[in-house]
Amino acid sequence: MRVLGVDPGLTRCGVGVVEGVAGRPLTMLGVGVVRTPADADLGHRLVAVEQGLERWLDEHRPEFVAVERVFSQHNVRTVMGTAQASAVAMLCAARRGIPVALHTPSEVKAAVTGSGRADKAQVGAMVTRLLRLAAPPRPADAADALALAICHIWRSPAQSRLQQAVARHAPHATKGRTA
Question: What amino acid positions are annotated as catalytic residues?
Answer without folding.
Answer: 7, 68, 141
